[in-house]
Each structure stands twice: as structure tokens, then as C-alpha cells.
Amino acid sequence: MEENLARYICSILQDNQQNSEVLVQDVYIRAQVKIVKCTVNDIPVDISFNQTAGLSALCFLEKVDQLIGKDHLFKRSIILIKAWCYYESRILGAHHGLISTYALETMILCIINVFHSSLSAVFCLAGCIYIIDYSSSQYFDNEF
């Protein structure tokens, strides 16, 4: 049923592509979680079906942001670092075998936990440096 719904939405998006602001690319991911990917006004959008994990993650990350405070430092750090990872370093995109969004958010949360005593608004700008420096040294120090 989910697969039929995903295909139906894909066909609607593709049929209306000429008359709308929606650019449809890499339309359908055949995986355990069915995903329709499209771009709306140059913003990538993923549509999934019958998945509550994303909403649970959203609630968790919202609570973390409220707990950290400091003028939404956590959210601002996520936005900045995700933009850098996606547009500059090209390391974000689980469907291409790269870092998933949730993994990146978890890394940011880990860095905030480790460096909580020195957090300030500057972290939002320096977050990329913290993540790259700290996670790259940790990755090679640990055995799997």
C-alpha cells in the first residue's frame, strides 16, 4: 500500500511539473522506508510514509534545544553545519552513502555535550571546526 501511494504521489508531481514550482528529481527510493524526493523553490524535500521515527526525533531535538537554550544555539548550529556539509563539503546525503542528517545532528549534540562549559553563540560559527577536528580524531582512534 505504501509503495502504491508513493508511486501515485510521484506520478502527480511528475505530471504537474511543467505547470508548477516543483522540480522533481531522483523521484522514488525503493527501500524499506519509501521516500519521494523533490525540490520546491530550490529546497530539497523528502516525503515518507507511515513513519513516526522522524516525528519522535523532531520532538527529541526540540527538547534538547530548549534544554540548551542560549537563543536556540543547538538549532542554529544544526542549520549552519548542515548547510556547510551539504553545499560546501558534499558529505551529507545518506542515500548516496554519506552522512545522514540524523547522524550529523547526533554528532553536533555530542560535541555540545563534550564542550558544554565553553558554549556560546560563537559555537554556531565555530561548530564546523569543532565537529571536523573532534570527530576526525575520534574516528581513527577507535577500533571497530
Number of helices: 5
Helix content: 55-70%
- Whole-number tally of structural domains: 2
Largest sheet: 4 strands, antiparallel
Question: H/E order of the elements?
Answer: HEEEEHHHH
Give the low-pLDDT segments: none
Tell me the total number of β-strands. 4
Topology:
Elements: H1 2-15, E1 22-23, E2 28-29, E3 35-40, E4 43-48, H2 53-68, H3 73-89, H4 101-114, H5 122-141
Antiparallel strand pairs: 1-3, 2-3, 3-4
Helix pairs in contact: 3-4, 3-5
Task: Give a brief description.
This protein is an alpha+beta fold and 144 residues long. 56% of the residues lie in helices and 11% in strands. The model has no long low-confidence stretch (mean pLDDT 74).
Q: What can you see in these coordinates?
A:
There is one protein chain. This protein has helices spanning 2-15, 53-68, 73-89, 101-114, 122-141, and strands at residues 22-23, 28-29, 35-40, 43-48. Strands 1, 2, 3 and 4 form a four-stranded antiparallel sheet that branches. The mean pLDDT is 74. It folds into two domains: 2-48, no CATH class; 53-141. The longest helix has 20 residues, at 122-141. The protein is built from five helices and four strands, in the order H-E-E-E-E-H-H-H-H. Helices cover 56% and strands 11% of the residues. The protein is elongated, with a radius of gyration of 18 Å. The chain is of the alpha+beta class and 144 residues long. Helix 3 crosses helix 4 (101-114) and helix 3 (73-89) packs across helix 5.
